């Protein structure tokens, strides 16, 4: 049974391009997002996170309208409970690791799927809590960013190529952490990657975006089908 549902039908004007996406997906766990460079993977996450207020069309998550230009509905980013982790984890450099986690927990508007101690344990952060974030390795930084995102109590977690800048060891470490969070929290996630191996490892199904002459579109792969990304 699939518990989560994404309904999108929007366009973003980026002259001379028009980026269009339309799909309806149900999934559990991690929905992988694949597609060539420029297909609109990051744009999709930005729309879901509420960072593209000018997008035309409709975006619904689990039946709730997040934005609908025809009805002049736009739920503000901080009210969506949709939290994104980007490739360049944007941690607060004036705070240590614990400070970053505490900040997210203080601003959370709901109870997170996992409590702070569990998040710290699953992401192996105990030895890092007092460290300044600008001294962390790439993999450590991404683990803190994921922990911070979970403690912000999202109902949808967006991961945009979170391991693409890491070496093989760092990648494997962070992917294992994501698997642990996925299994312990049940949080629905979208995971953007160019790497087929990562998507096969993490995702229950894949949404493949394809670039077309006029912009981007979604390949309507039947739910549950694994698609080999380009
Ligand atoms: N802020 C912006 N203003 C104008 N155009 C943009 C902006 N951000 C992205 N684009 C364009 O929108 C299209 C989709 O970009 P997007 O970053 O979503 O693709 P992507 O699939 O994530 O690509 P990549 O794999 O290279 O990260 C591209 O043509 C890109 O150049």
From TrEMBL:
<dbReference type="GO" id="GO:0005524">
    <property type="term" value="F:ATP binding"/>
</dbReference>
<dbReference type="InterPro" id="IPR003439">
    <property type="entry name" value="ABC_transporter-like_ATP-bd"/>
</dbReference>
<keyword id="KW-0547">Nucleotide-binding</keyword>
<dbReference type="InterPro" id="IPR050334">
    <property type="entry name" value="Molybdenum_import_ModC"/>
</dbReference>
<feature type="domain" description="ABC transporter">
    <location>
        <begin position="1"/>
        <end position="226"/>
    </location>
</feature>
<dbReference type="InterPro" id="IPR003593">
    <property type="entry name" value="AAA+_ATPase"/>
</dbReference>
<dbReference type="InterPro" id="IPR027417">
    <property type="entry name" value="P-loop_NTPase"/>
</dbReference>
<dbReference type="Pfam" id="PF00005">
    <property type="entry name" value="ABC_tran"/>
</dbReference>
<keyword id="KW-0067">ATP-binding</keyword>
<protein>
    <submittedName>
        <fullName>ATP-binding cassette domain-containing protein</fullName>
    </submittedName>
</protein>
């Amino acid at each position: 049974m699939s518990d989560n549902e994404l309904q999108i039908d929007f366009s973003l004007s980026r002259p001379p391009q028009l980026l269009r996406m339309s799909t309806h997906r149900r999934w559990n766990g991690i929905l992988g997002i694949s597609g060539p460079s420029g297909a609109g993977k990051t744009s999709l996450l930005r729309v879901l996170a509420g960072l593209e207020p000018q997008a035309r069309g409709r975006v619904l998550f689990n039946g709730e309208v997040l934005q609908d230009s025809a009805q002049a509905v736009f739920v503000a980013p901080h009210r969506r409970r949709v939290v994104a982790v980007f490739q360049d984890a944007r941690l607060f450099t004036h705070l240590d690791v614990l400070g970053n986690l505490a900040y997210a927990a203080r601003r959370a508007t709901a109870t997170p799927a996992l409590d702070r101690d569990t998040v710290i344990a699953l992401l192996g952060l105990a030895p890092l809590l007092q460290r300044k974030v600008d001294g962390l390795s790439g993999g450590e930084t991404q683990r803190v960013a994921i922990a911070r995102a979970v403690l912000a109590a999202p109902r949808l977690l967006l991961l945009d190529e979170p391991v693409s800048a890491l070496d093989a060891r760092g990648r494997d470490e962070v992917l294992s952490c994501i698997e642990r969070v996925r299994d312990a929290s049940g949080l629905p996630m979208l995971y953007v990657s160019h790497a087929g191996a990562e998507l096969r490892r993490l995702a229950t199904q894949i949404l493949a975006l394809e670039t077309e002459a006029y912009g981007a579109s979604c390949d309507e792969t039947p739910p549950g089908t694994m698609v080999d990304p380009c």
